[in-house]
Amino acid sequence: MLELIVFSLLNGLVYGLLLFMLSSGLTLIFSMMGVLNFAHASLYMLGAYFAYSISAKVGFWPGLVIAPVLVGVVGALIERYGLRNVHRYGHVAELIFTFGIAFLIEESIQLIWGKQTMDYREPEILSVPLFTLWGTDFPAYKAFMLAVSIGIFIALLLVLTRTRVGLIIQAAITHPNQVAMLGHNVPLVFTGVFGVGSALAGLAGVIAGPALGTFPGMAAVLGSIVFVVIVVGGLGSLWGAFLASLLIGMLQTFAVAVDYSLEDLFAEIGISTSKTSALSDLYTVTVAQIGPILPYLLLVLILIFRPTGLFGKREV
Amino acid sequence: MSTAIELIDLYKSFGSTEIIRGVNLAVEQGERHAIIGPNGAGKSTLYNLITAKYLPTAGRIRLRGEDVTGCPPYEINRMGLARSFQVTNIFPRMSVFENVRCGMLWAMNYRYSFWRDVDELDDVNARSRQVLEDIGMTSRADVPAGVLSYAEQRALEIGITIAGGADIVLLDEPTAGMNRSETDHTVELVRRITENKTLIMVEHDMSVVFGLADRITVLVYGEVIASGPPNEIRGNPAVREAYLGEEVD
Amino acid sequence: MAVANTAAPGRSSFLRRNAIWWAALVLVVLLPQVARSGTAIAVLNQMCIMVIFSLSYNMLLGQGGMLSFGHAVYFGLGGYFAMHLIQLAGGAGFFMPLPLTPIAGGLAGLFFGLLFGSFSTNRAGTVFAMISLGIGEMIAASSLIFVKFSGGEEGITADRTDLTPFFGHRFGSEVEVYYLIAGWMMLSAWLMYRFSRTPLGRMANAVRDNPERAEFVGYSQRRVRLLSFMAAGFFAGIAGGLFALNYEIVTEETVNLVTSGIVLLQAYIGGVGFFAGPIVGAVVYTLLQTLLSNYTEIWAFYVGLIFVATVMYAPTGLTGIIMMHLPIYRVRKLRTLALPYLKVGVPALCCAIGVIGMLELLHYLSVRAVGQSTKRLFWMSLNVEQPTPWIVFGLLAVGGFFVARRMAPALVAAWEAASAQAQGRGER
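^ Those are the sequences you sent over. The predicted structure of the assembly is below.
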């Protein structure tokens, strides 16, 4: 039991921080521009594919740096030449636009790299177990992912609190309409934030690729989950996004580990259940099986009962 | 005469700022009532409280003797109270004719009907044409409301408001931003359409107020300092003071 | 933009007013006589189902201002319920002719529309979009979990010919099924059209335009949205029921987000501001999907390109573009646009050929077998390892783009001149 808890905790942490790397950029973009970027997870996927191609030529480490930069450039271009033009048609049009971009990126990845899973691997130095507890290995690569995520989190925190640009961004998050009056070049800040947010998504893709697999469906796996994170965390709150990332990360890893169903509960309190009824699925289904549903249930509940999110100050 | 609208000890604060501070007011049926006051007196807030856009912090609102405090706007409207907006508030992507027609569907008892063709509702369409005639927009019937000029949109705004035939009409600065002839035109229009109805309006233009109103209520800093017929208000020293030399007549 | 929904008051004769419907009916009846092959009929069946589905989607987006990312929920659940009814009736042998089974799908859609709509239609905009996404993900995931109901990944199947014959028809042949589906399509489309012209339908437009004002003329914006949402769910369920009887299998794919995305794509490409928009979108999308995929593996990429281009440059969709030219056609000035169109069209076509050529070559690089280097494209054999094809396509693409862009202002000017004339004529 202890083994289960420790490893679920570690895996939840790795997964949660990865989610944060993705959602931090998304929540900044959403808070400042009011745009829920559907293509964010696609940029994450793009990061993994770029890194795969680069690592095949020059190795993992250069890819770790170059791929996110490339993704950042792609993101900035999308903002500058796409989103900005669609802006005049309103938020719904922007949402539809980013949805189209997500579709397009996914299709172009299949166009260039094909449908099969890429053989994108961690560097050899990290493909060893870091430590072994109760006979289970904890891979060094996961520790590396953890280190990168924490590094990014700290860097982000420093940039946002210690630099001029960071202060402008903070102001723009809480009062998006007033920053323009301060005389800053807001469009440029938007492009910049979009680019950096995309680069962070790309970086998440680069380090997630070897661990979670590099395949055309990898964006769909996380695409809606990052929305859950930023809605649950709340608009305009990086801390909210951080805590929500960890919450979702833990929720999913722990749920996977729990093989318990209503039937088991009934059995313990002495009720026997029929196996043949059409509703039998309802109580034979285990917590592990409904794990994937939980984040979305949370999303819907939050939007109904607390549209500001858990830590946000503004409504969606 | 019976009371159309009664406000009892009405309070409204936004955060810690108290905007409306204990307003008591009764408007009789068939009366044309104007609410005036200097900038920041809380006229618009009071207006929005009566029409249920805002919820009062304390106090009650009665509509023909019935307590309607906290009712949603659509229920207030169904009880026969219609309002216009200071900032033009129309259905921009629909035609002028559709705008007016939408204004009366509920009042003419078609509610959420999903089996009748709107073009075959002869009573509604005849009335819509009548309203367009009244507001002088018959020739613009098929134009999308979003492309109308400002004065036209204001007229349409009034058209939507009166379309349902509500017998209590509230108008928020119906002549705001209009030139002299447009204003005169609008006053004439308002006089005609509120025949035998209760009218409550917020207005800045004193010539409009004194030309139309049977009774005037003066609001200063969220409190009623005077309420009475125009002659009485014109001579009231407290009102003159509140306006600090502003031309009251 | 959406003024096409506006009808001038007054009546005209029943026959004339419904002329376009009679024409559509004749077309639908005659089509299988023209396109006789099995594949053609299959394409038509799919098209009809998608027309209903897209029209139901537009009750939300175009008419009600609700952007949904989870409309497939009602389509798919409708499909599952209709399929269960077919299974049940086939097994138990009670009276249930096949043409009635889509109603089960519709009722399922209506019920779930009420269930999910009751809490998701409180607001429009981003909140609604996000809730619809959440529900979409939940139902898609559930359909893989509750295997007894959904059959898991394999889905559920049934034999439609087991049911009570309908005036002697057992619907064994594709053509019989076509007439069944097409009949439902005509009926559904007509009902949805009627709906858009009822007091509720008009108030749905009003709530889309200005929810606050709608409340002050007596309507609860929530109730209006909920009722539209339920109606949209009903017709999506009908489409799902037709899907079930046509393919005799319903899987998780019918409820998932991809299907929800496709219906958004179809409706938007067609034009959400017009009643006919989603019909155009569904027809075009189905044709692209079924015909284009014969020629290229990356057809979906082209559809994505068309979609993004529509969002950026033609938000009124294909129907909007057609409608822009209607007044000009009426005053017979379309001819004045021919030359400007040619001047933009030819370079644009060159650009398209260049882009398509490069994309196809690029794709070939990733899928070719070892040692292969020749790609058949545009009736030519091209060697991807030679630089020539790349350079030629590149030049076509870049050159075409710049020439077309240079010519574009002249086209816009010509269009504006012609439509100014059309307007002048209209007012006189």
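Strands of chain B lie at 3-14, 17-28, 32-36, 58-63, 66-67, 81-83, 168-172, 198-202, 215-220, 223-228. The radius of gyration of chain B is 18 Å.

Shout if you want it in another format.
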